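Priority: medium. Attachment 1 of 2:
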């Protein structure tokens, strides 16, 4: 969907005739726009959390016991943040890879 939103008219027309439109990159510039949009979205999600993963881990390591529900909520929150962080790192690698490919051409 994001590829459709950021693609140029010519990229969209070219992709529309493919067997699976928009299932792969429309081109390096377009793909960078897609990845930047995904990166922005993930960072916005991460920014909505009131605490960092490190703060949550410290809360779990604290000697003061948490209720079972609170403990599980914090564990879930940490895992969500780690998954989002891993996705951010992956997208940043993809952006760097596209940039390297373009400079090698």
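Attachment 2 of 2:
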């Amino acid at each position: 969907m994001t590829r459709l939103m950021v693609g140029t008219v010519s990229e969209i027309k070219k992709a529309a005739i493919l067997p699976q439109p928009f299932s792969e990159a429309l081109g390096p510039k377009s793909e960078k726009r897609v990845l930047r949009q995904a990166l922005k979205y993930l960072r916005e999600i991460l920014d909505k959390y009131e605490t960092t993963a490190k703060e949550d881990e410290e809360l779990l390591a604290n000697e003061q016991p948490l209720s079972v529900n609170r403990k599980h909520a914090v564990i879930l929150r940490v895992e969500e943040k780690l998954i989002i962080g891993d996705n951010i790192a992956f997208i940043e690698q993809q952006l760097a890879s596209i940039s390297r490919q373009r400079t090698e051409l």
